[in-house]
Structure formats: C-alpha cells, structure tokens
Amino acid sequence: xxxxxxxxxxxxxxxxxxxxxxxxxxxxxxxxxxxxxxxxxxxxxxxxxxxxxxxxxxxxxxxxxxxxxxxxxxxxxxxxxxxxxxxxxxxxxxxxxxxxxxxxxxxxxxxxxxxxxxxxxxxxxxx
Length: 127
Description:
This protein is mainly α and about 130 residues long.
C-alpha cells in the first residue's frame, strides 16, 4: 500500500531497525509508533511541553495517513476498489479528527486516532 521510502521520509523518528521492514510490517510499525506517541501526549497532558509535542505528533500522524491516501489513489495500486475507498475515507476521517484536535485540544479526542492506528496496525499484522 505505501512505499517504504515515502513513509520513512514522512515519519523521521522511526528507529533504524524499522527501516529494514517493508510493506505491511513497515506500515504497521509506523502506525503503532504514531499511536504510541499520541498516547504519550494523552498520558502527559498536563506537562508544559505536551502541547508542542502533540502538534508535532498530530502532524506526523496526518502525514502518514495522507501517504496512505496518495498510494491507494495511485493508478498502480493493486488493492481492490472497495479497500481503496475505505482507506481514502478513513484517511479523510483522520484528517477531520486531527483538525478537530488542533482547534479544540482535548486528550479524550486522542483515543480515536490512537484506536484507529492500533486497529489498522493489528490488521496489517494479521491479528
């Protein structure tokens, strides 16, 4: 679904061991890292530096979902059309949720993005 080089450039904080992964494993790892970073923000909501970290992590997560959306819209993507449509809709939903959190930050809102990422990551790993 997503080319490894695109994801790695969009999410620069991936550990070097992750860079050896490809395909679904890489996508799963990236989504999990995004989810854990957002969870860390929620867990440390009252910390003075959390807001700036939150903005950075929301941006990273949104970039990952934009890449997913771009990849499935690519004519060379071989996924079935119904899966492509679902990914595009999910990416749009993630974008809407991200904007909602930007405009009215609340740690409770992060759980939606965290859950989406973790569930998709688990699905990519066949769990």
